[in-house]
TrEMBL record:
It comes from Pseudarthrobacter scleromae. It holds the Pfam family TPR_12. Signal peptide: none annotated. Residues 1-90 form the Bacterial transcriptional activator domain. Residues 800-829 are annotated as: Disordered. PANTHER family: HTH-TYPE TRANSCRIPTIONAL REGULATOR RV0890C-RELATED, REGULATOR-RELATED. It comes from the Bacteria. This is Bacterial transcriptional activator domain-containing protein. InterPro entries: BTAD, NB-ARC, P-loop_NTPase, TPR-like_helical_dom_sf.
């Protein structure tokens, strides 16, 4: 089929040359000979077209290039026709002249008023090919390129028109609609772009239709969005001229039956984690454009190991919008990329107007958004502004909640969201949980947020926003302890930014401290599972200092959760004080399950202080409580197993740990099961069965990563490293320890002294086996791994369970730290 297509092209070129249209085919022939270097007919047509275009030197150069190509790559001389052409060109033979055109059939002049590109188009090769290919579809005559402001619709249309126009016998015409203000001006603008004059009293649309009736050309109508009521003009032209092709650009589709829509997305973004190698990073479209435009103001600007992460984050902050990237790159004249990112993190409005040759609506991102905003109906504008309250992608239910009660006859949320999507202001999608969500680019979201700040009803919008997310937390957070925890965790993660925004609002002067307490009391375990606890811990401590008189039922969960966050950050004394306050608050609220939970937490802290007797007493007390929840009982068994293990009663420890695993499995809590498995692995390792210990630990990490909660994965991987050192896989052990060390350092998560001693002992053994150089190399490689990548190494390197035994850790080396949060699915109810 490709051969047939090329043969047909060649026949068409012969016809064009015979009609005297040699100048029109030079560009296409030059492109084709670079792609199909061994087709002699194409070379011959190119030589003839160049010669007839008064480019004899170029024609001779083409002959010599063809001869060189055939000789160097095929080892043969070109055919007789090419050799003869070279001789005729050297002689400037009259036979090569263009044929005389019959005066009665004079060749029509091609239309070519496309604006010249001022800068090269970067990163849009795939999109350009897709737009052009649409016209090869059966019956496709109208394509609309849609997309948000700043995505580069006009630039893509220019490139597509240039490529398609070469194949249209009558060329391509360009009509810029952006200066027009009324629909009735559109026919006159088209007529003028076609080079026609409309006498007074004649309909310019009829004049354009007669002109186009017998012609095959491409007509581009740029910036159609503010004149969408002019759609009958497009339909009339297509009806009158059967060979006409039309390409429009707009922020929304025209809504016509013959229309094919091509939605132009922002440029592809580089991944942040894991980062790409530099040579691949430079090829990512958003980065490619940033580097290209950056070099215009800083000639040696490039991406290197020192700025790769910053430039990648810049691309993400700018949403991959070509306009935003160009405006940002212009600031690199006076700012470093690091300072530019700091400015843009505060607000995208920090991008000033940078180019005089851009239309007013594109001088700044704000102007671009304003252009779209003014095209909306009043009800669409109100919902768009209300969307500014969301920090991330809201669900339809969240948007309904923020809108509040509506008057009879008001447009539905679905109708308004569809309208805003039609204006390319948002995109709809379905998340992993099957919920319909709405995505807005950061620039659009910030514009809506600024508009919301001017709305008199803003406080009520934020109150409804916080109310919805409190209800969401109350519904999902208890499920984090059940079979449904994976789905619950994913939903909370998807809404994490809005949950945080609700908490910050509730802490503010217009907020509600009771709402803030409810959020902390529900969300603390989600934060614990993620491992990112520093910021929420600070917020929670500030909140508790100002809510001393809150009702005990509301205060107790927040006190207990904040205590656990403090404990994770190494603030043991502060955590202990908060747990004692929580225990009293649970007593005052009459919450027996909460009392059992707080007692369990105090037992864990007693163990961390090496107060084994008190820890054992409190754990036994928990098991004797009739209303203690099943998960709390599992925690007590885990704690007693730890105490037995380090007291040297390994048989009792093994029995307790087996019991905790069997009790934890049916609950479905992967996080709790991982803790029980890790402790059982410790006893199994002590007994010399390293293969069984490794299998248990792999199961623990797999369960935690299935939940995608990395708060405890680091500790589990450190256990695997212990097994690896004992079974002579020292490099893999070093990789794991380096990865967990990097993870803890990034999040400010300290180790208790017993844990530090344990990890130090593993490192000492690993360094002794590996030696300083091998250890250092392995450590540096491991520090570059995420926890998931480190675990993938575990899976790839899993070996026989019959590994050689090594020394088991002694009872004085450490206590196996057990996270405090072992609680029932509805502990406070």
């Amino acid at each position: 089929m490709e051969e047939t297509r090329l043969d047909t092209y060649q026949d068409l070129f012969d016809v064009e040359l015979a009609l005297g249209r040699h100048a029109n085919v030079v560009g296409e022939l030059q492109r084709l000979v670079t792609q199909h270097r061994f087709r002699e007919r194409l070379w011959a047509s190119l030589v003839l077209a160049l010669y007839r275009s008064d480019r004899q030197a170029d024609a001779l150069a083409a002959c010599r290039m063809a001869r060189k190509t055939f000789a160097a790559e095929l080892g043969i001389d070109p055919g007789e026709r090419l050799r003869e052409l070279e001789t005729l060109v050297l002689r400037q033979d009259a036979s090569l002249g263009a044929p005389a055109v019959n005066e009665k059939r004079r060749a029509r002049q091609r239309l070519d008023n496309l604006p010249a590109a001022l800068t090269p188009m970067v990163g849009r090769d795939a999109e350009l090919g897709e737009v052009c290919s649409l016209y090869r579809s059966d019956g496709c005559r109208l394509v609309t390129v849609t997309g948000a402001g700043g995505t580069g619709k006009t630039r893509l249309a220019m490139a597509a028109a240039a490529r398609l126009g070469e194949r249209m016998p009558d060329g391509a015409g360009w009509v810029n609609l952006s200066p027009l203000t009324q629909v009735k001006q559109v026919p006159g603008a088209i007529t003028a772009a076609l080079g026609l004059e409309a006498p007074v009293g004649e309909d310019p649309l009829k004049i354009a239709s007669r002109f186009l009736q017998a012609r095959r050309l491409l007509l581009v109508l740029d910036n159609f969005e503010h004149l969408e009521d002019a759609w009958p003009v497009v339909l009339d032209l297509l009806t009158a001229a059967p060979e006409l092709r039309i390409l429009t650009t707009s922020r929304r589709r025209l809504g016509l039956r013959p229309e094919y829509e091509f939605e132009l997305a922002p440029l592809e973004l580089p991944p942040l984690d894991p980062p790409l190698p530099l040579h691949r990073l430079r090829e990512v479209p958003a980065m490619e454009l940033l580097l290209s435009r950056g070099r215009a103001v800083r000639p040696r600007f490039t991406v290197d190991p020192g700025n790769a992460a910053v430039l990648s984050r810049l691309c993400h902050r700018l949403d991959g919008l070509p306009l935003a990237i160009e405006l940002a790159a212009a600031q690199l004249r006076q700012l470093s990329e690091h300072d530019l990112l700091i400015d843009l993190e505060a607000s995208l409005a920090a991008l000033p107007a940078a180019f005089r040759d851009l239309p007013d609506r594109q001088r700044t991102l704000t102007a671009t958004m304003e252009w779209s905003y003014q095209l909306l109906e009043d009800s669409e504008r109100l919902l768009f502004v209300q969307l500014g309250v969301f920090a991330n992608d809201p669900t339809t239910e969240a948007i309904d909640a923020v809108r509040g009660p509506l008057p009879i006859g008001a447009p539905s949320t679905e109708e308004l969201l569809s309208a805003l999507a039609g204006h390319s202001l948002l995109r709809r999608y379905t998340d992993q949980a099957g919920r319909r969500r709405v995505f807005l680019l950061q620039s659009i979201r910030e514009f809506a947020r600024d508009r919301l700040a001017m709305l008199p009803a803003e406080p009520e919008v934020r109150r409804r926003h916080a109310g919805h997310y409190v209800a969401l937390a109350e519904a999902l957070c208890p499920l984090l302890w059940s079979q449904d925890q994976v789905d619950a965790f994913r939903e909370l993660k998807a809404d994490a930014l809005d949950l945080r925004a609700s908490l910050l609002w509730a802490m503010g002067p217009d907020g509600s401290k009771n709402v803030a307490l409810a959020l902390v009391g529900q969300l603390w375990h989600y934060w614990e599972l993620t491992g990112d606890v520093a910021e929420p811990c600070g917020i929670a401590l500030e909140l508790l200092g100002s809510t001393l008189d809150a009702p005990p039922a509301l205060q107790a969960p927040a006190l207990s959760g904040t205590a656990t966050l403090c404990w994770m950050l190494g603030r043991g004394d502060q955590a202990s004080g908060l747990h004692h306050r929580a225990l009293q608050a649970f007593h005052n609220a009459g919450n027996d399950q909460g009392v059992a939970w707080a007692t369990m937490c105090l037992a864990v802290q007693a163990m961390q202080r090496d107060d084994a007797a008190n820890a054992q007493r409190l754990a036994a007390e928990v098991l004797s409580m009739p209303r203690a929840a099943q998960i709390t009982r599992v925690g007590a068994l885990i704690l007693l197993g730890i105490l037995a293990f380090y007291a040297g009663d390994h048989d009792q420890a093994l029995e307790l740990r087996h019991a905790s695993v069997e009790l934890a499995r049916p609950i479905g809590d992967r996080w709790l099961l991982g803790i029980a498995l890790t402790n059982l692995a410790e006893s199994t390792q002590q007994a010399g069965d390293y293969g069984a210990a490794e299998r248990l630990l792999v199961e623990a990490v797999t369960a935690a990563l299935e939940l995608d909660a990395q708060g405890q994965v680091a500790a589990f991987l450190e256990h695997i490293a212990d097994v690896y050192v004992s079974t002579h896989r020292v490099e893999r052990a070093i990789h794991l320890l380096a990865a967990t060390d990097s993870y803890r350092a990034d999040r400010g998560l300290p180790l208790y002294s017993a844990e530090q001693q344990h990890i130090s002992s593993i490192l000492t053994r690993a360094r002794k086996v590996a030696g300083p150089i091998r250890f250092g190399l392995a450590w540096e490689r491991g520090r570059g791994l995420t926890l998931r990548q480190a675990f993938n190494e575990v899976l790839e390197g899993a070996c026989s369970t019959e590994a050689a035994p090594g020394p088991a850790p002694g009872p004085t080396e450490r206590y196996r730290s057990m996270p405090e949060s072992v609680v029932d699915p509805a502990p406070w109810s």
